[in-house]
Amino acid sequence: MAPQAAGPHKSGQNGVSRPLKRKRGVEDVDTLDKRVKAIDVKDHAFETFADLPLSQPSASGLEASHFKILTDVQKKAIPSALLGSDILGAAKTGSGKTLAFLVPVLENLYRRKWTEYDGLGALILSPTRELAIQIFEVLRKIGRYHSFSAGLVIGGKSLKDERERLERMNILVCTPGRMLQHMDQTASLDIGNLQMLVLDEADRIMDMGFQSTVDAIVEHLPQKRQTMLFSATQTKKVSDLARLSLKDPEYVSVHEAADNATPSTLQQNYIVTPLSQKLDTLWSFIRANLKSKIIVFLSSGKQVRFVYEAFRHMQPGLPLMHLHGRQKQSTRLDITNNYSASKHSCLFATDVVARGLDFPAVDWVIQLDCPEDADTYIHRVGRTARYEREGRAVLFLEPSEEEGMLKRLEQKRVTVEKINVRQKKQQSIQNQLQNMCFKDPELKYLGQKAFVSYVRSVHLQKDKEVFKLSELPLEEFSASLGLPGTPSIKFGKGDAMKTLKNTPRSVQLSSDDEDDSDGNQDLGSKFKADQPRTKYGRMFERRNQDVLANHFTKLVGDGKGSRDDDENELDGQAGFLSVKRRLSNASEDGSELRAAENTNDIVHDSDNKIMSSSIKEPILVDSKRKEKLLKSKKNVAKLKEKGKKLVFDEDGTAHEMYELQDEDKFQARGAPDEQKARFLQAEQERLRTADVSDKAAEKAKRREQKAKKKAREAMEVESKEAPQVELVPFEGDEGDAEPLDDTDMDDDGADPAKERPKKWFEKGIASEALSRRNKGDRETHKPETLADLEAMASGLLT
To answer: In what order do the strands lie in the sheet with 293-297?
Structure first.
């Protein structure tokens, strides 16, 4: 059977023509749009992902990742997000918030037929690098069948490598600081067509630590976009919502109607332990739970490092790890992966781990240091009891923290039960820590830093009803760390000493003058009895400061008269601080001038001031060194009045660089606020235009470079395909060779008029053979026999 002729369209692998496949894809998108528009947000009939109007690539990715049943937050958030509404989501930790915004991101870009040429379509911000990595991994799993390109921008890598890949990305998962850096420095990053902005752990991103960064990022983004905010403790402040330009957001809350904000499968307890016994209790707990997976939260990275190093030396019998923000990105990633893969281990960490991270099968969450607020507590305990699994959390409280912290937890509907420690099973490690700190200076140094960082963290806490620094037994706490003494801390005495230290001396003196009705200043009274005496305090407490020595009185009066007469003579100048000596040959009336010793046209008056025709203000000579320097023309030129920098307008009129405008003209142009607004608008428009032109120039430059590269590659290909020149050996010397080219010879085979110069190797027999060959002569041989002689003679006769 003869094969059929190929049609006008190429066929795909399954035999369906490509235009037909594209047509079917358009029909699928149209059908999907109709199903999405028919969603009733109030109808909560969606139980599985199969019930939602999702595209085939998303459905396949969810099924391959074993996501089938919708959680409560997903039931409420995904339908509204598919319709394009702004979302403000609050749900318990471990409730599936990540899929609640990743599925709408993929679906909305798919229904808009997004391609790599459309630029960045979705931006997902995360407060920590670990959480950003986790979000990206989930995105890779459920989006494996989509054609979108996704990127992870978290820092810790080369900015140049990230910059080369950003221009092709459709979805970016990033941290705020690194993203702002690319927005400012990467010209190829196109964000003008952004469709969706997602903030995971939004309350942490929008607090004071990231506020300026988030504001700068939002200024770069287009106003017309969809914004989604998710967190376990969501913000409702109008100012935060206005900064992000949310329009009628849908507030999705799961735990408002519940009894508390934490999962019901989480068992929460607290113990009251003195500060000096915290490490003993923690060591005893770890020794009693060697077959468990534990996370221990501390308030600072220095504490994490000290506790990790100390416990590692004592070998509790359980693998130990530590994680804090000061580590390198590669180290943090390795520790996160190792802890996730382990079955039994203990992780010492700061609050960098407290938000969003999903560690599988965590049994215990221990909060060795009290969290700063109830929201931080909720996020910390959320590392266990995830996805309806069971978990346990224990909070260590110092006696002064118990009442205040329990009150804060009750306000957030968090219920914790008090438990006691069995004293028989508790072990003391204070002596072991002291021995280790004595033998290892580095460990002692870490302990000192841990002590200082803990006290500072308590001092900086805003909630003073919970954190009471004055009631903490710091000396006992220092001894429990194994330190030989209590490290000194500058602000350890409270706010009163800090305020007094920062108060200007003039303010302190004036306040003392007002309080003292007799006019006698008692500067030592401002240092209270309960405050330490410092060097400056003892200095101001000295008595008889108004009794001056004889040499001091003579110095002030210059040995000629009283201090009052000297002040009148100097016309109010500052006494001995103004002039150290006087010239002996000055005139009495001060009107005559004497000639200078040099030729610089400089003269001295009676008050020892240098006068010159080129210097308007007199120069005061108060030392021999200065008088010697002024004998140089170069040094005198420095003292001359310098000219002002002028600028010329269009009419050629000179103006100073900075000069005040005419008040009437300024008022005529409108109110200052209006002028400022117009100026800012004009500058923004100019910057926007310049940004567009810069990006266009950058793209044109890249296209030109690509064109040059292609041209070079084409020339290399042509050079490889060109014919090679043949080498012909000389008759006289078989070892040498010379290229033979037809262009060097005439039609008759003779050399051109101008003979080629000889090379260094063309000598002797080879040179003669070459000349004979070029002239067409035949090389004759010497006759050896009679027959040869007759043949040569016959040739000559003819």
So the answer is: 320-323, 345-349, 293-297, 364-367, 391-397, 266-272, 417-418
Task: Please enumerate in sequence order all residues whose Cβ is within 8 A of that of 390, keeping only pairs 6 or more positions apart, or say none.
Answer: 265, 266, 267
Nearest to 447 by CA among 477, 472, 490: 477
Asked if residues 292 and 364 have their Cβ atoms less than 8 Å apart, the reply is yes
The dotted CATH code for 268-480 is 3.40.50.300
Distance CA 437, CA 676 (A): 62
pLDDT tens per residue, range 694-739:
999 999 998 999 899 988 888 888 877 665 544 444 444 444 444 4
What pLDDT does 366 receive? 97
Q: Distance between CA atoms of 538 and 545, rounded to whole angstroms?
A: 13
Distance separating alpha carbons of residues 434 and 455, to the nearest angstrom = 20
Helix (H) or strand (E) holding 104: helix 97-111
Q: How far, in Å, CA of 320 to CA of 311, rounded? A: 8
Bigger pLDDT: 624 vs 280: 280
Structure-token match 């005496």, residue found = 533
Could you tell me the two tokens for 779?
């090389």
Task: Report which of 172, 174, 168, 170 is spatially closest to residue 155, judged by C-alpha positions.
Answer: 174
C-beta neighbour count of 342 within 10 angstroms: 16
Instruction: Give the pLDDT of residue 506.
Output: 43
Q: Tally the residues of the chain.
A: 798
For the record, the structure tokens of 435 come out as 């021995």
Task: Specify the 3-state DSSP secondary structure of 550.
Answer: helix
Cα separation of 204 and 420, whole Å?
Answer: 33
Question: What pLDDT band is residue 214 in, cutting at 50, 70 and 90?
Answer: confident
Domain boundaries, the chain: 32-253, 268-480, 495-540, 581-633
Tokens found for residue 86 = 């702004």
- In degrees, rounded to 5, the angle at the alpha carbon of residue 226 between the alpha carbons of residues 143 and 217 is 95
Q: Is residue 716 helix, strand or coil?
A: helix
Beta-strand runs (E) in 446-550:
none
CA geometry: angle 57, 58, 59, nearest 5 deg:
95
The CA distances from residue 797 to 22, 779, 791, 793, in Å, are: 92, 18, 10, 6
Q: Which residue has the higher pLDDT, 286 or 506?
A: 286
**DSSP category for residue 329:** H
CB 95 within 8 A of CB 120: no
CA distances, 275 to each of 188, 417, 477, 478, 794 (Å): 54, 20, 6, 10, 130
Q: What's the CA gap between 58 and 66, in Å, rounded?
A: 12
Q: How far apart are CA 490 and CA 747, in angstroms?
A: 102
Instruction: Give φ, ψ of 610 to 5 degrees.
Output: -85, 130
Instruction: Specify the amino acid at residue 420.
Output: N
d(CA 209, CA 463): 18
The DSSP-derived string for 406-430 is HHHHHHTT---EE----TTT----H
Q: What is the DSSP letter of 743?
A: G
pLDDT at 635: 74
* Averaged confidence pLDDT in the chain: 77
Residue 70 confidence class, pLDDT cut points 50, 70, 90: very high
pLDDT at 655: 79
Residues 483 and 438 sit within 8 Å (Cβ to Cβ): no
Structure tokens at 338: 């190792």
Q: Where are the alpha helices (DSSP H) in 643-728?
A: 663-668, 672-721
**Rounded distance, CA 411 to CA 404, Å?**
11
pLDDT, tens digit, 9 for 90 and up, residues 115-171:
888 889 999 999 889 999 999 999 999 999 999 999 999 887 778 888 888 888 999
Domain 32-253 has CATH 3.20.80.10: no
Q: How far apart are CA 498 and CA 491, in angstroms?
A: 7
Do 32-253 and 268-480 come out as alike in CATH topology? yes
pLDDT at position 553 is: 54
Report the C-alpha gap between 491 and 502 in whole angstroms: 12
